[in-house]
Specification:
The chain is of the alpha+beta class and 111 residues long. 40% of the residues lie in helices and 29% in strands.
Length: 111
């Protein structure tokens, strides 16, 4: 097993710019999405955050880089909620962690 765990930051990677003086954070979140696109990791934005998956070190680096980019836009404070899941009992094909979880529940519901 590799020393770098495969991480799935699911549902709760939610970066919250604070002290911006404006009610919308969409521009800051768009900048973070640009960072995630450049990271090469599998990600999917949703209404209250972003699903992100890949090797632990790359996932945490991408979140770190989002913080740097949003601070560079003049945001004095950022709060981020993160939920990360790892598992060692089976191999996860890179890029399929979140999709496999959703598909498993959908398969159960379709029966």
């Amino acid at each position: 097993m590799s020393n770098d765990l495969y991480a799935v930051a699911a549902e709760d990677f939610c970066l919250i710019p604070m002290g911006t003086g404006e009610p919308s954070v969409a521009g800051y979140i768009a900048e973070c999405q640009r960072i995630l696109e450049k990271s090469g990791l599998k990600y999917k934005m949703h209404g209250y955050g972003t699903n992100l998956e890949g090797p632990w070190s790359e996932v945490t680096k991408a979140i770190h880089d989002c913080h740097l980019a949003v601070h560079a836009q003049g945001t004095p404070r950022i709060a981020t909620d993160i939920r990360i899941g790892t598992r060692t009992d089976r191999e996860i094909t890179p890029g399929t962690g979140n999709e496999a979880k959703v598909k498993r529940v959908e398969d159960i519901l379709s029966k």
